[in-house]
Amino acid sequence: MSPKAHIIDDDEAIRDALSWLLQSRGVASATWPSAEAFLEAWNASGESLQGCLLLDIRMDGMSGLELFEHLQGKGLKLPVIFLTGHGDVPMAVSSLKKGAFDFVEKPFNDNELVNRVIEAMDADARNQEKQAISASVQSRLDTLTTRERQIMELILVGKFNKVIADELQISMRTVEVHRAHLFEKMGVRTAVELAQLLKP
Questions:
Q1: All domains of the chain, ordered by start, with CATH?
Q2: Dihedral sign computed on CA atoms, order 85, 117, 77, 98
Q3: Band of the pLDDT at 28, cuts 50, 70, 90?
Q4: CA-CA to 109 of 20 to 30 Å: which in 83, 115, 128, 192?
């Protein structure tokens, strides 16, 4: 699914205005009249979402805050920008502490809002890239044998082949062979590259 700003607001005029505003700056969007409609479509598609959510904090039925907490419970890390009325600011501040990207008070400044949406979508793209790299590294780690993992751990604490051979009571030649296989599987050429690849 391509990145989009998902606008979830029970006020049709606001949905249309936001959709037009984002389109005028080249930002793709999708609109939803309720949290329930958004959830139904997302659950039915089974696809991973990319982009960000523009979410009215108060709506009939499930509120924006309830949807946010529900999505967090499902592990969805899409950046969320809350649209709030003046009286909802304390609630919005509390949502920031729980991991929301930002909140914008109505009436909002058009350009500032679109700028925040673009920043949220950029943040999501960086997060998706990080997750893809992390998944790729994990799949490479899963191919290592127990012995290769032991040797990798000793390499990562800076031990030389001779010390590793002594500790594991194997020949230096065996360490060199395992080291070569390990580096090949992990797609690195040096211990430094290996450490950089695995740093949190």
A1: 4-132 (3.40.50.2300), 143-198 (1.10.10.10)
A2: negative
A3: very high
A4: 128
